[in-house]
TrEMBL record:
Gene3D superfamilies: Immunoglobulins
Presence of keyword tRNA processing: no
Keywords annotated in UniProt: Repeat
Biological source species: Poecilia formosa (Amazon molly)
Residue ranges constituting the Fibronectin type-III domain according to the UniProt record: 76-165
Protein name, UniProt field: Fibronectin type-III domain-containing protein
PANTHER family cross-referenced by the UniProt entry: FIBRONECTIN TYPE-III DOMAIN-CONTAINING PROTEIN, TENASCIN
SUPFAM superfamilies on file: Fibronectin type III
InterPro entries xref list: ECM_Regulatory_Proteins, FN3_dom, FN3_sf, Ig-like_fold
Amino acid sequence: DQDESSITLQWNKINNSTSFVLQFNGIQTFISSPDGDGPVTHTVSSLTAGTRYTFTLFSVFENVRSSGVQLTAVTVPANAEGFRASEQDETSITLRWNKVGINTSFVLQFNGTETNIRAPDGDGPMKHTVTSLTARTNYTFTLFSVFENARSSGVSILSATGSDYVLGLNLKLELLGEMSESEMEDALIELFRKYNLPPQFTLKIISSKP
């Protein structure tokens, strides 16, 4: 088993007189053979999400070690942060989220379908547009981070396609500090959500200095 910060290893007992040494990252852990005939289970914790680890297990009998057996396993990657709908119209929804890591891809799940999405180069946010949708319809999207076939627990959002009318609204804001267009978009979306207004809009931000 594995999660974001731990990997659980399991192996068969040899006999009641044989113990084990688990070695990884230059650390050795001594593990005694438990009572009974069941398998031996050991959990390695305090690991980093989305990381590959190599473990070496030695059997030990009266201070004599076996040649050892190796296993490579990975921790589950973290869920993507900032997952939200950034643009909607009558037939499409554009989703946006932050990258998790260089080697972490994604799976987008909705309506019983799954779409594999590779992480592009660079550190910018991810964008993906889902098309051929129905106007005025709610959709649930679930996004999974994937590292070497290990899938995160997933994060879900509910979003709706736009209706067949357009509402235009001009806002003039005075900012005390500097904000990027992306940061301003995030702030306005949170403002709309605070007052239970679905952020189904397209923003055009124009900077004007006094």
